[in-house]
Amino acid sequence: MKRIISKIAYLFKYLLNFKTIRKFEKINCKLDETLRARKVDQIILKGNIIKMVKKYLRVDAKSKYIPKDNKNNAEIRERILAEFGEQMAYLNIRINDKLELK
User: Phi/psi at 101 (nearest 5 deg)?
Assistant: First the structure.
């Protein structure tokens, strides 16, 4: 008997708060779509940063006679922040001293 009364009470609470529940469900759907789009943008930006670093360091240099450029992490970090700083701030991506993207 107690279970039935609690289920009926839950039903009435649900009916009284139906509009609020629906509003939050719509907001959650929009937030989910936005978070997924943001995550995709973050992945694309990280890929672009990695491509830029490879090009900047000339990792793909295959010549025996022309050496690869040696640059320190501070230079690379400053270059990344100069090119992608605004996008990184907007998408909440950070780079540490070891050049790890988070």
Answer: -85, 135
DSSP string, 2-40: HHHHHHHHHHHHHHHTHHHHHHHHHHHHHHHHHHHHHHH
This model's pTM is above 0.90: no
pLDDT, tens only, 11-47 = 889 988 999 999 999 999 999 999 999 999 999 999 9
Tokens 């320190």 sit at which residue? 72
Q: Report the C-alpha gap between 30 and 12 in whole angstroms.
A: 27
For residues 53 and 21, what is the distance between their CA atoms, to the nearest angstrom? 48
